[in-house]
Specification:
single chain, alpha+beta, Alpha-Beta Plaits, four-stranded antiparallel β-sheet, 4 helices
């Protein structure tokens, strides 16, 4: 899939030790890219750890060839676990890990080891 990412706004939050990015994703003639592809490309652009990069949301309009998104890049996993909601953390994992986490959570078993930033 071919897409380009442009950083519209970059803000550093020193209290939480994270960078907050607003991005525009151009994907002319293609569907919107998934979170994992965006996460990988942003981490490469910013020189950040892919495991500590979280795509908060992606907004697309029907028929548009671009999407707008928000991304947070953390310095450490502890801050990420504290400030990001559980469902956002899970959305930024591969499909197999997501289903495994939800299965273990329903059984009230430990699932924290499946997150990559542990």
């Amino acid at each position: 899939m071919k897409f380009e990412i442009e950083i519209l706004n970059k803000k550093t939050n020193p209290l939480i030790e994270r960078s907050e990015l607003e991005i525009r994703i151009d994907h002319f003639g293609e569907p919107s890219p998934n979170r994992l592809e965006i996460r990988k490309k942003i981490a490469g652009m910013e020189g950040a750890d892919e495991k500590l990069t979280i795509v908060r949301n992606i907004s697309s309009h029907f028929g548009a060839s671009h999407s707008i998104g928000k991304v947070n890049i953390y310095k450490n996993g502890e801050d990420l676990k504290y400030f990001e909601p559980f469902h956002i953390q899970v959305r930024n994992l591969v499909k197999e890990k997501r289903s495994e986490i939800y299965k273990l959570r329903r059984k009230n078993e430990k699932y924290e080891h499946l997150f990559e930033y542990e």
